[in-house]
From TrEMBL:
This is IS6 family transposase. Keywords: DNA recombination, DNA-binding, Membrane, Transmembrane, Transmembrane helix, Transposition. PANTHER family: BLL1675 PROTEIN (PTHR35528). Signal peptide: none annotated.
Length: 349
């Protein structure tokens, strides 16, 4: 049964019409079955010189990023849509992620204390234990032994473990507050994933790093290794800056998220002999693995998520890097902080 089209041919007044694509302005075109005349009923016929473009605010689909003209839906997938410019001279194809399918990144779900109140021990002692664990790469038992030998303070290794998890929201809130003021507009952002174990089960931690500042822009912990996880990670950091390109390995999960969210060049590194390598994030993964070995795995998803967030905070704001002239990635990105403020209360007072 033919669909009823509430228009008639302007040449022969026939109602026997069918859709005939769209013109270069995004207007729906029809063709008469009788006289074969093509026209756009809402505006002047698209075959004439007086054809008018549909205003961008009234277009059903996004405009072409190259020429600004209307686009049509070329392919519709679960996580993204593929659009193509209506102008055949441009014919640009672009992608757009669907906001309804992106899952929130794990770094946005941090649970614990929001202050240092009602603590049996001083803040200075807590900060000392945190620095020893997240920067020194020391186990909880060795930290407890060191505090007993140096300060004659007896603390259980379980208590230190709780400190390293429960104070994550404080540092997370501070990092979210400071990051919008930093400059991450650089040539390349590097993305990669690595494996961690939670209760003996393999999970994947996704990272994205700015090449110039070595700043870890975000992470996402997930039991899956597929394209939706890359969508989630990229969408969470897209407002922090605009890179010229995204660098990753040959894994195909990064391909479509890069096009649909950033719309920039995607460099897929093949080997170490390439002009552009992924060594920036590989070096970070090496440091992360060195710290991760002191844990011998994690006992729950929530504790793993909180402790990884704390590690990222200390890496970005506290730990000086020799490759950055003994500055922190945050300082290279434009953050200014006194030595006393950074060393005493670690930016959270």
């Amino acid at each position: 049964m033919d669909k009823i089209i509430p228009h008639c041919c302007p040449r022969c007044n026939s109602h026997s019409l069918y859709k005939y694509g769209k013109d270069k302005f995004g207007n729906q075109k029809y063709q008469c079955r009788i006289c074969k005349h093509q026209f756009a009923p809402d505006f002047i016929s698209s075959g004439s010189k007086g054809a008018k473009p549909l205003p961008p605010e009234q277009r059903k689909y996004p405009s072409c990023p190259i020429c600004g003209k209307a686009a049509f839906l070329h392919h519709n997938f679960d996580d993204y849509s593929n659009y193509r410019c209506c102008d055949k001279k441009c014919n640009h194809s672009f992608f757009q992620a669907k906001p309804t399918v992106k899952i929130p990144p794990s770094m946005s779900n941090i649970f614990g204390k929001n202050d240092f109140k009602r603590m049996r021990h001083s803040i200075h002692l807590v900060i000392t234990a945190l620095v020893m664990f997240y920067i020194g790469g020391t186990s909880f038992r060795k930290i407890a032994l060191s505090l007993n030998l140096l300060y004659h303070i007896k603390i259980s290794h379980v208590t230190i473990s709780d400190w390293c998890k429960k104070f994550a929201p404080i540092f997370h809130t501070k990092m979210i507050t400071l990051m919008p003021a930093l400059d991450f507009n650089s040539d390349e952002w590097h993305a990669d994933e690595t494996v961690v174990k939670i209760k003996g089960v393999k999970h994947y931690i996704w990272f994205i790093i700015d090449s110039e500042t070595r700043f870890v822009l975000g992470f996402h912990l997930s039991p899956h290794r597929d394209s939706p996880q890359a969508f989630s990670l990229f969408d969470s950091v897209k407002d922090y800056g605009k890179p010229n390109s995204i660098v990753s390995d040959r894994y195909s999960a990064y391909k479509v998220p890069t096009k649909s969210i950033f719309g920039v060049r995607h460099i897929r590194v093949t080997s170490f002999k390439d002009d552009i390598s992924n060594n920036v994030i590989e070096a970070f993964n090496k440091q992360f693995k060195y710290w991760y070995k002191t844990r011998y795995g994690f006992h729950s998803f929530e504790s793993a998520n909180s402790m990884i967030m704390m590690f990222v905070f200390f890496y970005n704001f506290i730990r000086p890097h020799s490759s950055l002239s003994n500055l922190t990635p945050a300082e290279v990105a434009g953050f200014k902080c006194s030595e006393r403020q950074r060393n005493s209360l670690l930016l959270v007072s």
